[in-house]
Amino acid sequence: MSIHVYNSLSRKKEPFIPIEEGKVKMYVCGPTVYNYIHIGNARPPIVYDMVRKYLEYRGYDVTFISNFTDVDDKIIRAANELGEDVFKVANRFIEAYHQDTCALGVKEADIHPRVTETIPEIIAFIEALVNKGYAYESKGDVYFRTRKFEGYGKLSSQPIEDLRSGARIEVDERKEDALDFVLWKAAKVEEISWKSPWGEGRPGWHIECSAMVRKYLGDTIDIHAGGQDLSFPHHENEIAQSEALTGKPMANYWLHNGFINIDNEKMSKSLGNFVLANEIIRQHSAEVVRFFMLTAHYRSPINFSDELLEGARNGLERLKTAVSSLEHRLEESVDLGQEADWFERVDAQKQRFIQEMDDDFNSANGIAVLFDLAKEANRYLREEQTSKKVLEAFISLFHEFANVLGLILHSQKELLDADIELLIEKRNEARKQKDFALADQIRDELKEQGIVLEDTAQGVRWKRG
């Protein structure tokens, strides 16, 4: 079996063949840090963290880079409104980003480069483009000659002749051509800036990623990824800049995740359905948000609503209950022999999971395999006798899958806090003393805290209500 990836550049699935055997160089466009991330911003970190984890699971050594745009018009505007330094604003929201994504189970990038730390490389990159005739200076600004790059539009499949009338093309008398885009911006009064061959100024948005990719990963990388909205113009401009300079492909595979809708409407500030990630995390928990995100294929649009999140919570709870039941039974099981048939069933689920995930990182189908594994586990638990080794095989595979998806399927015993443990112990003692009124009272108290008790032959069990 081999991994196949949908390549946005070719618009088809292709076998994944890295540049260097066993190693993957991956770059994901990160946030512009002028505010807290919204739920749409949270999807790329979750999605590409899953991709990274799956590649590592399949034996690849992944170098994962994701940048921070820490100087930009939006950040400067936010700093002016707050009366704060640009660096202070950027640092605060970078820290907030780390807090939100860490809660969502996202592993930190190997390197999180910042624009303000990459200025020398950006200037050198622009100078090289000027020297090759792909860029020119105009009144302190530097622009890229879009028409000079023959492949422009190949990622977004937009012929260059159709772009001139496009609404997103900026018209500026300083440009030779309306299609040209800015690489370096001349400084405005009292605006943060750096010295350059063209005077004081700062980088344009698109050039930063080209410079960072080349600095940390080289001229050509394996995977470049980001949200669907970045395909044009950001990624298109990255390709033009990088390939004009090096004459080599910037990336062999381009991945783009789909949009998020809120209650079946596209999320936007104008509609008032703009939801911050930390608000959703507080309302529904980070693990539920991550699980929900992965129940859809990363390229598909995803609808966000409280009802759908509640459904995800219930689904995740079913998986946790299955693991808890296995661990509960494990305490009293013994080795009954090999039981080859059940080991084969467990292994079959593992092979199915790999097959589904190999198909363009299809986490939705991977989670479906998790639910099938839960069904098999529950079927096995109905056996009169259970083998310790089979139970361990089920538990191990659950956690193997969960690690790939960035989920935590703790046993329920581990989720109990000290207060609830004491209440359950108190209720057990009350039942022994035949004080059923007190036992019922404690049961009701726990129910109010979202803990539902079940009295079984093996002892007291619980689940979240």
Given as residue ranges, the uncertain stretches (5+ residues, pLDDT < 50) are none
**How helix-rich are the residues, as a percent range?**
40-55%
Radius of gyration: 27 Å
The strand count comes to 15
How far apart the termini lie comes to: 41 Å
The global form is elongated
How would you classify the helix and strand content by structural class?
alpha/beta
* Order of adjacent strands in the largest pleated sheet: 4-3-9-10
The largest sheet, given as strand count, sense and whether it forms a barrel, is: 4 strands, parallel
The percentage of residues in β strands lies in 15-25%
Oligomeric grouping of the chains: single chain
